[in-house]
Write a structure and sequence with these properties.
The complex is a heterodimer of chains A (about 300) and B (about 425).
Chain A lengths: L5 H26 L3 H10 L1 H11 L5 H23 L5 H22 L8 H6 L9 E3 L5 E4 H29 L1 H6 L4 H23 L1 H18 L3 H26 L3 H20 L12 H6 L1
Antiparallel strand pairs in A: 1-2
Helix pairs in contact in A: 1-7, 1-9, 1-10, 1-11, 2-4, 2-5, 2-10, 3-4, 3-5, 4-5, 4-9, 7-9, 9-10, 10-11, 10-12, 11-12
Chain B lengths: L1 H7 L4 H26 L3 H22 L4 H25 L4 H26 L4 H9 L7 H20 L1 H9 L1 H6 L4 H23 L4 H12 L6 H25 L5 H19 L5 H29 L5 E2 H7 L4 H13 L3 E4 L2 E4 L1 H24 L8 H7 L5 H10 L20
Antiparallel strand pairs in B: 1-3, 2-3
Helix pairs in contact in B: 2-7, 2-10, 2-11, 2-12, 3-4, 3-5, 3-10, 3-11, 4-5, 4-10, 6-10, 7-10, 8-10, 11-12, 11-13, 12-13, 14-16, 14-17, 17-18
Classes of the chains: A mainly alpha (about 300), B mainly alpha (about 425).
Chain lengths: ~300, ~425
């Protein structure tokens, strides 16, 4: 029987929080045509995570977050350097940067395998299913609930604060960077701040959903929302809705098929995306109000 | 060292086989990758390499074992689906190409992970082999599989070599190709199939996550050394082979170490060396040539100022006067004076600078070029005399003697520029 027990609720709740954090940042990444940079960052933070793990000896250390944050910013800077100074085209710069940093991360994991409790699978899939047993226990022995859920709450609060504080700046620089610069908005600094938030969100979520699937949550819900609306406020609302929806459906499907929860969330998101793409496509009959090119020509 | 000799003397025939396989695979991927790099579609390769994962898993589920035919078939199927979807989405939605690639990549990979965990839960002992597809393990490739992948690589290399002209048209000028009657759509389909095939083969050694590097990096690095397509392809292949062998060697001496990351690290090292040190396009070379150009222009500006002073009937300039003309470039000005002094174009006596004969000649040449160009812009381009100075300020450093002769001829050896200033010549009496 599929009933809502505490564990299921906790997993769905945490997954939704993560999906919302990623989606909110993803909206701005998508508007800036930087989705692949987001993908690159989420791969590139891996060596930072491993080094942070190694230094602090625990996955809870602040070193892990600092390491990942630094690597995320480093990746953005390398991509920029390759593009502007070495004059490599943008897509190739992204490809070269993230594969190199991710490769270094995997090598570090293998070399430090005995010292670091981190394996390749964890990096890929995450372990959200084990969330209810990974509790945050205070020194007096009082259990405050799952650690990862708390991390996700903190992450979401930070993301919301970030967007609330910089909403105008983010919006302007996303739609028209040069206009933003004319108005005196430091576009470069805003960009770096956004990249830092993406790195932080990646590292905060990777234990739960895996470093690579973070990308899907960053990209797919905003892209799906974009198919339906171009208005930034509706984009954000729809992205949040999709994030919650895929968490609920993904969890139950994974439970039913006995499979990876994070993977299933992404698959559901992919299904929703494809359905939306078909329904809203230029040739679709479902799209009302506008006439497709062919009809316009024949009439 | 012993390991090194054992590996590279190829006493072990299986090592020889694997190295040969890696070589073929490297050439194939580098070829295909270089074309897609030139086509500005580098990241499509990344999307396809992630997208073959569910196909591989499906092939495994259908065959119940790691059968190369099922796996290649499944991978081709899901790779083709991903390629088709990305071009469909591009045509039918308003999403940017970047978002489309990111969506395809992550959704296919996510679905692949779902299938992989489902296979894992069934406890099939062959499963261990499937994990190798994620990070690659060249040493683990079975000899009989190697035959399949080796001949597929050969097929890719042959097709690309035979259809070199068609594919160059595709990436450099598809419109033109269409106009002269080449079936460009068909060529694109063949190219996409080759790309998927090379991904399927490549992931054996390097894994789905990092496969993009084998497609993108060799071409991007080789592009720094040459402008010729043939050389570019050969260099890219060479880079891929070297790093393929390095990666294989390291996963041979360190057990449990996947091949892919090391291939990527050595490829990236080669790429970094290319970016920095390649002649002409390298960062270092461009930096040096920019610096020497700046030095040259500054030297020429100093000469010009001295000449203009002479036109105002002064014999030279005080160092302080000259420095105050370029208030933000004081050190550069001093340096220019020093070099000009060394090559005997000017003399400095108690803080007063005068041009020598050779310096005068050089200064005349620069002022002449400046004023000739101003006159040309004014007469032939109908640009007002008060708008021609800035362009001449740049061109005076670039005009060659041949071009000067041509300008002079076209303007009929003029005496005055648009500002009614004298255009100085060597036979003038100054």
């Amino acid at each position: 029987m599929m009933t809502i027990d505490t564990n299921a609720f906790l997993i769905i709740f945490t997954a939704s929080l993560i999906a919302i954090s990623c989606g909110l940042l993803g909206v701005f990444m998508m508007l800036r045509k930087m989705s692949m940079t987001g993908d690159a960052i989420s791969h590139a933070v891996l060596p930072g995570i491993v080094i942070g793990f190694f230094i602090s000896g625990t996955q809870r250390g602040i070193e892990v977050i600092i390491g990942a944050g630094l690597l995320g910013i480093l990746a953005t800077l390398i991509i920029d350097w390759l593009r502007k100074k070495a004059k490599v085209q943008l897509d190739a710069s992204i490809g070269i940067t993230f594969t190199l940093l991710f490769a270094i991360g995997i090598i570090l994991i293998n070399m430090l395998a005995y010292k670091v409790d981190l394996d390749q699978e964890c990096v890929l899939y995450g372990e959200i299913a084990y969330l209810p047993i990974d509790l945050w226990i205070t020194k007096s022995g009082f259990s405050l609930g799952p650690r990862i859920t708390w991390l996700a709450v903190l992450n979401l609060l930070l993301v919301i604060t970030f967007i609330w504080l910089l909403f105008k700046e983010l919006k302007l620089t996303s739609f028209d960077e040069s206009f933003g610069i004319v108005l005196g908005i430091p576009a470069g600094a805003i960009n770096l701040a956004l990249m830092s938030m993406v790195s932080y969100t990646t590292v905060s979520s990777f234990e739960a959903v895996g470093a690579i699937l973070v990308v899907a949550l960053l990209v797919v819900p905003p892209a799906t929302a974009f198919l339906w609306t171009k208005q930034i406020k509706s984009l954000i609302k729809l992205t949040i809705g999709i994030g919650i929806g895929i968490s609920v459906i993904g969890y139950y499907l994974a439970f039913w098929l006995d499979s990876s929860i994070a993977g299933m969330m992404v698959s559901v998101a992919g299904f929703v995306f494809l359905t939306s793409a078909v329904l809203t496509s230029k040739k679709s009959k479902f799209k009302f109000g506008t006439q497709s090119k062919e009809e316009a020509f024949s009439s | 060292m012993e390991d090194f000799l054992y590996f590279f003397s190829f006493q072990d025939s299986s090592i020889l086989f694997i190295v040969m396989g890696i070589t073929l695979l490297g050439i194939g991927s580098a070829y295909v990758g270089t074309f897609s790099f030139l086509d500005n579609k580098a990241l499509l390769g990344d999307a396809i390499s992630h997208a073959v994962l569910p196909g591989i898993c499906l092939g495994f589920i259908l065959a119940g074992e790691k059968n190369p035919f099922y796996i290649v078939g499944g991978a081709i199927f899901s790779g083709a689906l991903a390629t088709f979807l990305s071009s469909w989405l591009k045509e039918n939605t308003k999403l940017s190409e970047d978002s489309i690639i990111a969506v395809i990549l992550s959704v296919f990979f996510g679905f692949g992970i779902v299938l992989l965990t489902m296979i894992q839960k069934t406890g099939n002992p062959e499963m261990a082999g499937l994990n190798q597809f994620i990070f690659g393990n060249a040493i683990g490739i079975l000899e009989e599989d190697l035959w399949v992948y080796g001949s597929l690589s050969l097929l890719i290399i042959l097709t690309l070599s035979l259809l070199l002209k068609e594919f160059s048209l595709l990436v450099f000028n598809a419109e033109y190709g269409k106009a002269i009657g080449f079936p460009m759509k068909g060529i694109r389909v063949v190219f996409n199939i080759l790309m998927i095939l090379s991904v399927v083969i490549g992931i054996q050694a390097i894994g789905v996550v990092l496969m993009a590097a084998l497609l993108i990096t060799p071409g991007a690095a080789a592009r720094f050394w040459t402008d010729r397509l043939g050389t570019l392809l050969i260099l890219a292949a060479l880079f891929a082979i070297i790093s393929g062998i390095v990666g294989t060697y390291i996963s041979f001496i360190i057990p449990q170490m996947p091949t892919g990351p090391w291939v990527v690290v050595s490829l990236s090292t080669l790429a970094l060396i290319s970016f920095l040190f390649a002649p002409k396009k390298g960062v270092l070379f461009r930096f040096i040539s920019r610096q020497s150009y700046l030095k040259k222009t500054h030297k020429e500006h100093v000469l010009k100022s001295l000449y203009k002073a002479m036109e105002k009937q002064k014999s030279g300039l005080q160092i302080q006067e000259l420095l105050s003309m370029y208030p933000v470039h004081k050190t550069e000005t001093l340096k220019s004076i020093k070099t000009l002094n060394k090559i005997n174009q000017l003399t400095v006596k108690e803080g007063f600078i005068e041009l020598n004969e050779s310096g005068k000649k050089e200064a005349k040449r620069i002022v002449r070029l400046h004023r000739l160009w101003e006159l040309y812009l004014n007469e032939y381009m109908n640009i007002a005399p008060d708008h021609v100075h800035d362009s001449a300020e740049k061109l005076e450093h670039l005009i060659t003697p041949e071009l000067e002769e041509l300008l002079d001829n076209r303007l009929n050896y003029p005496k005055l520029d648009p500002h009614q200033e004298n255009i100085p010549r060597d036979h003038d009496d100054h």
